[in-house]
Each structure stands twice: as structure tokens, then as C-alpha cells.
């Protein structure tokens, strides 16, 4: 089973918002979609879900075009956080709508999750706080039992407890590998430890498709204090500067080899220790136009 | 009932029940007030003799088909299409797994079915209240010819008015502008009657009253069918990024402009003096352009102001 996005493009008022977007997505994957504000993440979702009519391209589930066989759309779940119809409804009314669209909607689990997160069925959606709405959106997504779940900035503006709740629920859900998540964010820290694959949307296009496990296998983040103030050639050539504080350098080496390790140790640094590598470090290292050492001049 | 019908019913039932309740109440009150105020010394018959003829009956005290019913069709057409856009229910419908064509026609026929029930109930209330509350000494005699023609004609007008607002709400993305546009177009449509009568009765040919009526019915039905079928075509191509703009389909801007200018100038040409025609033409050309292209004009004006203030 796979959801495939092929060559999807959308122009609004003469401006290209997304262009030639293609990727595959299988159940069991948690894909992070990363891009700066206005990069086109939400437009991509809206176009995938037929809210916006695509200029070109297709979205297929198991080879079946969603546009030609709309019933396949029930395998994909998406709530537009900005434009949705939920505002006028009470939480107890929402399953009445969703069970008519998603044939496997789990009403009992919906009620149980509302109780678990202390959400009242009688509450109107619009009267909920931002965090509570995000939880309700996720509860609807999970109880829809759709195979592919799209979450648009689910952590935006939420406190740490709600974030953890959402992340835990997503990870629990993926365990059986029957569902897949596509989660957008402009904050890399939010996806750290959650996504196993990250798509980078840049200048309207999908510029990178990272398998994080593979990237992490080869990359290292090091904290160094060198004897000299001069930056050695091995660092200039192979590393990306993340932070500098006095003589302390924090660098990321995306393709760490034994040879690099040997050269670094030959410099006899005062300090050489490995730090935990975050998603943000990886992206800084992979996306920086230069190595960062220019800043030190 | 399949799930799509259930879904649309759940979504629209409050609007439809409101329309039902309002219709019965308004018709009951209006008919009751009109009838109970009549005096047998002034009026002998509630319904005039023309009810015997095969034409639509509209009298001083009684219409065989209430105008309130026509208004309700107009209002429901507008509400059903506009509310789904404004409340973002279209987003849910478009991802519901049902084709847009099916969503469109299910919504249309559900509304029409319910409105037909409302019409029957409204007519029953109107005729019932008239019969029950009519003061003694005043006659209430109906004839099938006038009644049937009125019901058929009334329904055709209702369907057309529903189609006008339904279509307008499909292409206009701003509620206030939609109300103005739909009301303006509906009111102006009464001006097409003299045009129609001139077209069917002139020095080249002459249609009888019966033929004029039947042709009118056929034309109304055709206009309704065109608007509804065209609406279905557009609904399948509706892309929600223009929600909140005057026109949801930017490609319709030029056709709407041409229709606006031609329609109002055409109305003036048949019903007015040459000076009225000229004024109408100039007004529609200028106003239509300013209205339809106002975001672009506003942007240019903003840029001009910025340049001007930068120079200062």
C-alpha cells in the first residue's frame, strides 16, 4: 500500500505556490514536511485533498487516482486547521458527521479519548483553546481509522504537555504499521524524535527527501577546543559550523569517516567530544550555503 | 437513505426546518390578517372571476400561489450554497469520498424535495386559513384552471429564483456582495417581462395569451435547467483558494462584466428613453469595471499613494 503524489503543482493568482511535488508515502512511516512559513506546506495538503484543484499532477492510493475514484479519499484524513466546519458544532456532534464519511470511524474510542484528555462532549469546538482544538483534531484523525493522516502544524503554539500527548499518540498509533502520518512543521525541534523521514519544501519545490536513520548513521556533531585559533583544513573541508563560543566550536560532519577522525585526533585538540545530533543540526549542516566559518572572519 | 443524503441532511436540516416553519407561519399570518379584515359589505368574493381562466391568478386579497413561497425558494438557494462555503463545509464535502457531481445533485434534489413538501404545506395552510377565517357572507370559489396554472407557474418561478441565488452563491464568495448581487438581479428580472411581451407580440408575429404563457413557462424552465447544469459543471471545478473574493472563478470576471453591462443596458433599451440607455450604459461600464477589478485597482491606488508619499 502506498500513497503517491506525482508532479503536483498549484498556482494562485499567477504565483507558483507548489511546483512539481512528488513523493511516496507508505503506512508505518511518519514523514515530516518541513519548510519556512509560506513555503507551501498547507497549499500542498489542500491540493492533495482536493480543496484546491491542482493545475497538474495526481495523488493516488495503491495506484488509484483520488480524482477519478473519490471513494479512495476516505483512506486519507486531513483537517484544515484554518478553514474547517467544526466551529459551530459540539464535540458530541462531530462523530455524527465523521462516521458518515469514514466507514471505520470508532465512536467508542472517540468518546474514551475525550474523557482521557478531559474534554467535555457538550463543549463547542470554537470555545476550546488552541491546544484543546489540536487534541480534538488528532482524536478525530485517529478515530477515523484512515490509513494516511495529515497533520498540519499540529504542535504550533501548544504547551509542552499537549505536545507530548500528541507525539505519544502518534508514535503509539504507528506501532502496528497500518497507518502513516505526514506532519508539517516550520520548527524542526517539534519533529525531532518523531519523524523517520523528512521532506524539505523550499522555493515551492521538494528540495530534499531525507531518511533520517541513514543520515544519522553517517553524521556526527562534535564539540571541539583546539590549541590554535586557526581553523584546520579538515574542518573547513568537511564540517559545518553550528556554534562558536570563544575557542569552543560546535560542528556537524555529515559524512564522518575514520580518516576524518584520524586527522582530527592528530590535531591533539584540548577537547573533542560527541554531542547528541538533532534534526535542526542536520538541516543546518545540509542546507547552509557555506560552512559557516566565514562568520568567524 | 444513503450516507451522503444523511450527511447533507444533518448539515442542512436546521436551515430547511427554519424555511419550513417560517413559510407556514408567514403564510398563515398574512392570509389570516388579509382575510379576517375583509367585510362582506365591501367584498362578495375572495377570488375574482379570472380564476376560471388558464392563467396565473393574482388578486387583491388572494394569490393562488403565495409570493412567500417564491421568496423561500430564493432564500434557501442562497443559504444552502453560501453557508457551505462560508462555514468551510465544502472542505469536508470535497474530501468526503463522494464525487463533487454527486454532492451537488444530492444537495440540489434534497433541497428541492424538501421545498416541494414546504410548498404543499404552505398552500394547504394558505387555502385552509382562507377558508376557515373568511368572514361569513364572502364567497371563496376556486376553479382548477386558474389554480393549476398558478401552481405550475408559481413552481417554475420558484425554481428559477432558486436557481438564480444557488448559482450566484456558487460563483460569489462574499456574503454581503452576494446578497446585493442576487437581490439586484432578481428585482431587475421583473423588467424582463415587458421585453418578453414585446418580443412575442410585435409587427412580425403575434402569440395568443395561452401561447405567451406556455412559451414563458418553457423559457423559465430552460433558464433554470441551464443555471443548474452549469452550476454542476462549475462546482466540479471549484477551487477554494478564492474563498472570500467577489468571484470564486476569476475566469468568469470578463463574462460577468459583459453580461452585467449588456443585461442592464438591454433592460434600459426596451423600457427607457435614449438618454436613460446612454446613462445606464456608461454607468454599468464604469461601475462594473470598478467593482469587478477593484482588488487590482485598489492595489494600483495603494502603489500610487506609496509613490506619492515617498516623493514627499
TrEMBL record, chain A:
Residues 3-228 form the ABC transporter domain. Signal peptide: none annotated. It comes from the Bacteria. SUPFAM superfamilies: P-loop containing nucleoside triphosphate hydrolases. Keywords: ATP-binding, Nucleotide-binding. Pfam families: ABC_tran. GO terms for molecular function: ATP binding. InterPro entries: AAA+_ATPase, ABC_transporter-like_ATP-bd, ABC_transporter-like_CS, P-loop_NTPase. PANTHER family: ABC TRANSPORTER ATP-BINDING PROTEIN YTRB, SKFA PEPTIDE EXPORT ATP-BINDING PROTEIN SKFE. This is ATP-binding cassette domain-containing protein. It comes from Levilactobacillus tangyuanensis.
Automatic annotation (TrEMBL), chain B:
Keywords: Membrane, Transmembrane, Transmembrane helix. The chain crosses the membrane at residues 16-35, 62-81, 108-130, 142-169, 176-197, 213-235, 247-266, 272-292. Signal peptide: none annotated. It comes from the Bacteria. The keyword Transmembrane applies. The keyword Acetylation does not apply. This is ABC-2 transporter permease. It comes from Levilactobacillus tangyuanensis.
